[in-house]
Write a structure and sequence with these properties.
Elements: H1 12-21, E1 28-34, H2 38-56, E2 60-66, H3 73-83, E3 87-92, H4 98-108, E4 113-116, H5 128-136, E5 141-148, H6 154-170, E6 179-186, H7 187-194, H8 203-210, E7 214-220, H9 233-247, H10 250-278, H11 286-318, E8 326-331, E9 334-337
Parallel strand pairs: 1-2, 1-4, 2-3, 5-7
Antiparallel strand pairs: 3-8, 4-6, 5-6, 8-9
Helix pairs in contact: 2-3, 2-5, 10-11
The structure holds uridine-5'-diphosphate and magnesium ion.
């Protein structure tokens, strides 16, 4: 893909082509973005490996993407990769966020199917077997549907629920509610995903957009195995705005309509003021003047803000930068790195 940034001499998709000749592609790749996940990574690796030996008899790879962690995540990934040749480590040059780290992992995954999963064990890797069976029966995507989120905070659940409800009202692409990025995808779907170059990525929406047969698999979302959430409120808001702006231009239309409505209101107010003026009573009305002025100023700023969100994205897309830069790729003893470490 043109939007990926791998170190010189390392091109996972070309490598996949080379491997394909020998018929040696893993049946499934697990892709997990990791941002300061050192505490739970060993356990994550253990459960994924077990799940893969159940599902595909160990014919798998595990792609761990270090998203610019500041703890021991990368040394740990390297140790896992040295000990088990099925582990592939990617290290981004800086923190790019969950969506881009996942995209980097998807670009590097060679498997016939790819399971995208969080590294904090909130999504159970053991679901892989059942998901594989769904896919054997013809599904292109099997996505996890969160039935219970008891272990998450009330605040997080309320935000998520509000978000999914307004998203489905705003967008035309049917993005299933209460899903995350936890999903098994066929090679066809992953390759289609790799054709999509946008900088602001909302993966679950992009995969819905691709289409094919997409099947839900209900599961109970667990609490984190270790560590704390890497998604503070700020990042949740950013993801929500990315989701809306990448799948809908309806906010722009809402801006237009509210502009129209308020323009008509303004006409009414103008008429009223003229009548008052004709009657000679124009001293009163400071309150209504202030109210009208601040209301209109508010609406104008809101509309400008909405325009700005879209315009800013347009500027960023027009730069055509790679979405992320991978500083190092480790497969077993082989290390491709941008600079010697
Ligand atoms: N993550 C990441 N980069 C970030 C933030 C998060 O790669 O900047 C990873 C994180 O390590 C985890 C996944 O994305 O594997 C989901 O993050 P988290 O569990 O913190 O989000 P939550 O489940 O609380 O929504
Ligand atoms: Mg989590």
């Amino acid at each position: 893909s043109p939007w990926t940034g791998f170190p010189h001499g390392c091109d996972p998709q070309r490598d996949a082509g080379r491997l394909r000749v020998n018929g040696a592609l893993p049946r499934v790749s697990i892709v997990a973005p990791c941002f300061n996940e050192a505490e739970g990574l060993q356990e994550f690796y253990r459960r994924c490996s077990l799940a893969c030996s159940d599902a595909v008899g160990g014919d798998h790879e595990i792609v761990l993407v270090d998203d610019g962690s500041t703890d021991a995540t990368w040394p740990l990934i390297e140790a896992l990769a040295r000990a088990d040749e099925r582990v592939v480590g990617l290290r981004l040059l800086r923190n790019h966020g969950h969506q881009l780290a996942s995209s980097a992992g998807l670009a590097a995954a060679l498997g016939e199917r790819v399971l995208l999963i969080d590294a904090d064990l909130q999504d159970p890797p053991e679901l892989l077997s059942a998901m594989m069976r769904e896919m054997d029966q013809g599904a292109d995507v099997v996505y996890g549907l969160r039935t219970g989120r008891d272990r998450e905070s009330w605040f997080k659940r309320t935000c998520a629920s509000l978000f999914y409800r307004s998203l489905s009202w705003l967008t035309d692409t049917a993005i299933p509610r209460d899903t995350g990025d936890f999903r098994l995808m066929s090679r066809t779907v992953v390759d289609a995903f790799l054709l999509m170059p946008e900088q602001h990525r909302f993966i679950r929406g992009m995969v819905s957009w691709i289409g094919g047969r997409q099947v839900a698999m209900p599961y109970q979302r667990e609490g984190r195995y270790a560590g704390t959430t890497k998604y503070p409120f700020r990042k949740m808001v950013r993801l929500a705005i990315d989701a809306v702006t990448s799948f809908s231009t309806r906010p722009l239309r809402i801006a237009t309509w509210s502009g129209l409505v308020f323009a008509f209101l303004a006409l009414g107010v103008l008429g009223y003021s003229l009548v008052q003026w004709a009657r000679g009573s124009v001293i009163d009305g400071w309150t209504s003047l202030m109210a009208a002025t601040s209301l209109f100023a508010g609406v104008q700023l809101l509309v400008l803000g909405i325009l700005g969100e879209y315009l800013g994205r347009l500027v960023q897309e027009s730069k055509n930068r790679p979405l992320f830069l991978v500083g190092a790729v480790r497969r077993g003893d082989k290390l491709h790195a941008v600079s010697a470490e």
